[in-house]
Design a protein that fits this description.
The chain is mainly α. It has ten helices and two strands.
Length: 223
């Protein structure tokens, strides 16, 4: 959700946000006539979903930003810069590696009570144990960080490919940066005494520089 919001803010497109609880997504979207995601997706109906000016609905972040680029080409998101897919894959894998730490906290810290049972039960099926057990399992803690370090190395490498930064393209921001900034913000919200966001930011000096450069598009991040 955050990368799409960053893209909207960057382009200066007006929008309003309607929050929908997890168990209400499918019935609401079906009622609106929104086609489900394909079989490769984790869920048939997902957030974010937007309604654009012609009244049509678009679900799934990459489809949304492609539509935004077509709707308002400038300022460009540079979706074809070669970094979008690379950063998205690295961020997705980073999120998966940190899931034993982050997913239990997501339920507690970020979700309303109406969404917590649905989230907890679906993730219990995904991980094969309750989120409470996942948080204290041998998949969490230092094991998770050991798994994430090569992925942070990969992200670090991309940020250093175009010296002078702070963005992956150098001086030019792109949607790839918004994907990465979405990761920074997510772990910042889940951080406890510096154990996620703080530790990640210390991995390389390019990380806090990148996040600070993207913060202006996060000023509006919740409405």
């Amino acid at each position: 959700m955050l990368p799409v919001r960053l893209a909207l803010n960057y382009k200066g497109l007006p929008y309003t946000t309607e929050w929908v609880e997890y168990p209400d997504l499918a019935p609401k979207f079906k009622a609106l006539g929104i086609p489900p995601n394909g079989p490769e997706a984790l869920a048939a109906y997902s957030s974010p979903t937007i309604r654009i000016s012609d009244g049509s609905y678009i679900m799934e972040s990459r489809a949304i930003v492609a539509a935004l680029e077509k709707l308002q080409p400038e300022p460009s998101l540079h979706l074809d810069n070669g970094y979008t897919d690379r950063v998205q894959a690295a961020v997705l894998n980073t999120t998966k590696a940190l899931a034993p730490i982050g997913i239990p906290r997501t339920s507690e810290k970020l979700l309303n009570p109406a969404s917590q049972p649905y989230f907890n039960e679906t993730r219990k099926k995904r991980f094969g144990m309750s989120l409470k057990d996942l948080a204290i399992s041998d998949r969490a803690g230092e094991t998770a960080w050991k798994n994430v370090e090569p992925l942070l190395d990969e992200l670090k490498g991309m940020l250093h490919e175009n010296e002078g930064g702070p963005y992956v393209m150098g001086q030019q921001v792109s949607y790839a940066d918004f994907i990465l900034a979405g990761l920074w913000r997510f772990v910042e919200l889940l951080d406890e005494d510096g154990d996620l966001f703080g530790r990640g930011m210390k991995f390389d000096e390019a990380f806090p520089k990148h996040y600070e450069a993207c913060r202006k598009w996060l000023e509006r991040d919740s409405y």
